[in-house]
Structures
1.
Amino acid sequence: MTPEWDLVVIGGGPGGMTAAQYGARANLKTLVIEEMAPGGAVLLISDMENYPGFPEPVNGYEFSDKMRGQTENFGAQFQSATATGLRKEGDIYTVETTDGEYTAYTVVLSTGAKHKHLGVPGEEEFSGRGVSYCATCDGPFFKNKKMLVVGGGDSACDEASYLANLTDRVVMIHRRDRFRAQKVLADRVKANPSIDVRFNHTLERIEGEGKVNKVVLKRTDTGETYEEEMDAVFVFIGAIPQTQLANDLAKDEGGYLITDQNMETSSTGLFVVGDVRSTPFRQVVVACGEGAVAAHVAAARIDDIKGEAYGAV
Ligand code: NAP
């Protein structure tokens, strides 16, 4: 059987779109399946300042939109659908989606990761009513109000800095005595007079009437708990990799999918790139590099299947 596609990319974030670009440029008939707008997590970045070639920060939506246009210009196609299953028969993969099935010689899985929840009382109740996981989306609703940021990684530091442009009353708590974030981001937060950083703190409870009014915080070094008025709570405590389509593949202790240096999994022709992949550094530029490698090796795998291989990759 000849599949309909050479390469199907599941997930249209920067890693997935780069794989599609390199695939299409290598003359692979390439499809990107994306359930939302292409861009993935980048869509939520207001100012991306660490992508090479952009000396001024670039808006994540504009960046994604340009990348999508570029991907289409190279000949890849996009399909709006949710992938629900993935199976392999012989050399052919079948991607099951809400829009039907798509067959391909090779698949790039770039399904990303979704934000983690704290699981404290009030979090779900006030979600969308003061509790948020996206500063760019919801921060402007709380202009000049008092906002709490929870977390100590790059996301928390980046987003706290963003929120501090909207108000001079950002409280940032982290459960440890120092940030996990890259030093440049952590130092920026610590130097910002609008951000009140409190280490060794956890959020115990979120309270309010119809919307967030108050939080209960705990000092982990003394055990003391105290209440504080608060208008919004932004939670940035990491992510859960979206591995549902490949749950039988090897994962690291964080649940991220393990590949070899070619981004290939133990299933020949199935590649993993971006935030769903086990890597020491999750960055847009890293995801793009991974996408390029995956597409390059995918092309070689297809040559293998067709008996046109030039040599081993
Ligand atoms: P992360 O690096 O996993 O950091 C999550 C933070 O939340 C950690 O400080 C962690 O504390 C804390 N945390 C986790 N569970 C918690 C809980 N239940 N209660 C309280 N705190 C909790 O996640 P991230 O910041 O979202 O970043 C994800 C990836 O994207 C990283 O690889 C990061 O480098 C990348 N990223 C990069 C940029 C950038 O370059 N500008 C921006 C955003 C994200 P512990 O430290 O105690 O574990």
Note: The first strand starts at residue 5 and ends at 10.
2.
Amino acid sequence: MDAIAILDFGSQYAQLIARRVREAQVYCELFPWDAPAEQVLALQPKGFILSGGPRSVYEPNAPFIPPYVLESGRPILGICYGMQALAHALGGQVDASAAREYGMAEVETISPNPLLTEPRLTVWMSHGDRITRLPAGFHVLARSANSPIAAMADLERRYFGVQFHPEVQHTRGGREILRRFAVEICGARPEWTPASIIEESIQRVRRQVGSERVLAAVSGGVDSSVAATLVHRAVGDQLVALFVDTGLLRLGEAEQVIRTLRRQMGMELIAVDARQEFLDALRGVTDPEQKRKIVGEKFIRIFEAQARSLGSPRFLVQGTIYPDVVESSAPERQKAARIKTHHNVGGLPPDMHFELVEPLRYLFKDEVRAVGEALGLPPEMVWRQPFPGPGLTVRCLGEITAERLETLRQADAIFLEELSAAGLLGKGSPLAQAFAVLLPVRSVGVMGDQRTYQEVIALRAVTTEDFMTADWARLPYEVLARVANRIVNEVQGVNRVVYDITSKPPATIEWE
Ligand code: XMP
């Protein structure tokens, strides 16, 4: 498949560049700028995109364009630092400009070219340094009030540079620019579609596992469901899926996972009813970290016992996705990755050895969803919001009992139902997560002539890009009113509903 290689010079937007190119249906991969040449060239890239970065080209040990890129004869698009590095490498001059240019800018195209076909563009700029002398063979394509060289090119060698960021949403028509570079300038065929992704994954999985047995643990989450379904397409009943019903999922979810994968997808699925076991293990525990630990350990023990009883299959399916892969290979982003891993429950015991089958390893989340849809998984599963591994334990504050879990599940279902009725859930939803939390607090209320003394439900709904920061969603008052009204009327044991209006930071998304 035709591909583009993106070299990451430390940009916070590197993954966005990759996503935009993939949206143009061109396959691409992201590499650290100093990745071994063989690794990058193995992709046989039709062209290179050089990302932005926080450094200055004259700094000691500044990242530079590896020689194999310039020697390849392939088109190059340098973005921001990538453009400066290109100018620097080819004999141009880069200087620190007096004023940093940050924010929106109007760019005017002054020379016809295949990359910037619009006469004017509104773009996002974020740079200190700028190019003051072009390398030989280059000319100016576009300028802005602050950047006399907002874009440059050597059309003969098909080298392009843009000072602005076409990958960010604020740059109007930025997607088109990246598409034109990949498809028209590099000549990469736009063949990266859900159908081709599925076909390619199936071939890869078949080559990897041959006729061996494969085990998949499914949680009901998007990644594990899509991964298991793909592997099932590839190897059919060599796959056995394992679903542990912890009793900690939302209303109706366990039944849905079993029904969909077993009946609709025809998978061999072992469903272990471990609800009582989890309740017993969690009895009397209120500390959040303790809850997480107990759920993680219990899960692993059950998984281990099942795997053994299945004769310990050689292969295990894992729903690793591309952002997990690139984040763990880029040192400057390892801090962010570490923050995420503390959320991942448990790990396999050291004496359990599996070879991993990772059919989603090269996919972004939106691609996983598109593949899930193409495989025929129901929209509720494909568009499911992220759900914490320890499940409702961390949303049921205080002690976990069957009754309190049921109260929480009912309230949560009403909240989701009303959001859905208001068109605020599912595909294209602005809400990243929305859920109910049961507080271990009683408050006084009045119902009819009766005084009540019952627990409180807190509603949480957030918008976020990356889950590292989040804002509370400005839900319509009418929706909140309907939800609160229904919860106190329909859910036993709840007489008060509050809405959480804290952002992250300083609060977290979950309450525990
Ligand atoms: P916080 O609450 O830290 O959540 O703002 C950020 C994201 O992580 C999810 N989360 C978890 N996921 N195990 C998980 O698998 C956990 O223990 C856990 N705690 C929080 C949370 O739902 C949100 O998407």
Note: The chain has a mean pLDDT of 93.
